[in-house]
Amino acid sequence: MKKEVSAYLTVTLALMLGILLSLAFTLLDAVREEAIRTEIESAMELSLFSVFGEYHRKLLERYDIFAIDSGYESSFQGEQLVAERLQYYLNENFTHGGSKNGYDLTALQSEGSTVSEYCLLSDNEGQVMKQAILNYMKHKKGLGYVTDWIQDYGQLSSLEQNAYDVEGEWERTNQEIQQKLEERKETLEDDEEMPLLDHPADHVKEVKAEGTLSLALPSEKEVSSREINQSEYFTGRNIRTGTGVIPEDKTFLDAVTAKILMEQYIFEKAGYFSQEKDDSYLKYQIEYLLHGKEKDRENLEATLDRILLLREGINFTYLMSSSSKQSEADLMATLISIACLMPEIKEPVKLVILFAWSYTESIQDIRILLDGNKIPITKSDSTWNTPLSQLISFTLHLDDYNRNQEGMDYGDYLKFFITTKNEKELLFRFMDICEMDIRHITGNTSFCVDQCIVMLQASSGITSRYGGSYQITRSWYYE
């Protein structure tokens, strides 16, 4: 007799096992997909962090600015090398330090990375550079630093805007005197001699041709002979621009505070006459920012000429207001006009004497500044240095002046001039200086500000050995 055996439990378990295995593999695949997404996102963040960690060290050390040199100290221009570095870091992160074992749940690999958008340090007419500077000044120095810097240049600004045109009026008055001499010559008889007009202002005008720097420079000081070829630097060549959106300005500074911090930064990082930076190429960097000439000497001369024009106007205004100085000039002009038998030239001669007197005092003012001392903004009888009797020999007495006076030194005049400078021009020339200084550091001869990346958006195509392809895009920037 044949015995029947029930197998419904075995069949049920077999059917359930198939369902359970299907569920398990489905869950495993879902876990793998979630792990892949998590790993891709984490790897991308870590890789971008690593890319931005390769900032240009010399730029940071010298100017406290973070940026990636997209050429990596080569002459290569473009974002391709940055994309290659990103792909390298992605694959390093995917392989967990280089291990490619079979138990890797994700088995990911980057097949290609691109930088779709990027912002350069020089973009937006230098505003990206300005933002980097303000971030540094705000976080490293603090806003309390602003109050230590604020100076009232209102009086000096007003004096410069309304300065008497000494140079132009001096020339016009000389022409007037010459015209009177010509008129007198026409009235002379054949046997009469033309009166000889000789006055100190003419001698001052002859010496003036030597130039402000040659006259005012102290004998113990030397002028830098450094020069550049401007076409090799930022302001003189074709500039690359980025393709991305400019990072949002999160400094939250008002215009006045931002301007002051920018000026503070410039004087912290750039040198000038008698305050040169040891690691700078051009020695008179502030003077270069003001005038943009290729030679140190030319920039210094242009700066001193601007100070001279300002001081001449201020000093002439004082002479016109001083009754004692007016009397001295009037007496000298009277004697000269009597000596040449031409009383009609007394007033113009007096005027050119005053012009020459204000010039000689202004040259001495500059000598004082170049000596590292201060001069008051406006003069008085007690602070005036040049007596009228030294008008002809003033160059022999430039070191004879009142010391330890209150007022402004040479650096203060430079700060005033910087406050009046066009911001775009200032930023562009500052980028010139950055390139000059860093290129003269070994291994950085190809450094360019317009290949320094501060923000980028990158994409990467990623595949898994288990099948599937993925795309990720992320942005990153220095804050």
Notes on the structure:
Strands 1, 2, 3 and 4 form a four-stranded antiparallel beta sheet that branches. The protein has 479 residues and is an alpha+beta fold. The termini are far apart. Helix content is 52%, strand content 8%. It contains 16 helices and four strands. The longest helix has 45 residues, at 8-52. It has two domains: 8-126 and 448-477, no CATH class; 156-228 and 292-439, no CATH class. The relative contact order is 0.17. β3 (452-464) and β4 (469-477) form a beta hairpin.
Which characteristics define this entry?
about 475 residues, alpha+beta, 2 domains, 4-stranded antiparallel sheet, 4 strands, about 50% helix
Tell me briefly what this model is.
With 479 residues, the protein is α+β, with helices and mostly antiparallel strands. It is 52% helix and 8% strand. The protein folds into two domains: 8-126 and 448-477, no CATH class; 156-228 and 292-439, no CATH class.
Largest sheet: 4 strands, antiparallel
Distance between the termini: 90 Å
Low-pLDDT residue spans:
none
Question: Percent of residues in beta strands?
Answer: 5-15%
Number of strand elements: 4
Tally of contiguous helical segments? 16
Shape verdict: rod-shaped
Q: How many domains, as an integer?
A: 2
Roughly what percent helix?
A: 40-55%
Q: Whole-number average pLDDT?
A: 88
Question: What is the C-alpha radius of gyration, as a whole number of Å?
Answer: 37 Å
Query: What structural class should be given to the helix and strand makeup?
Result: alpha+beta
Strand and helix order: HHEHEHHHHHHHHHHHHHEE
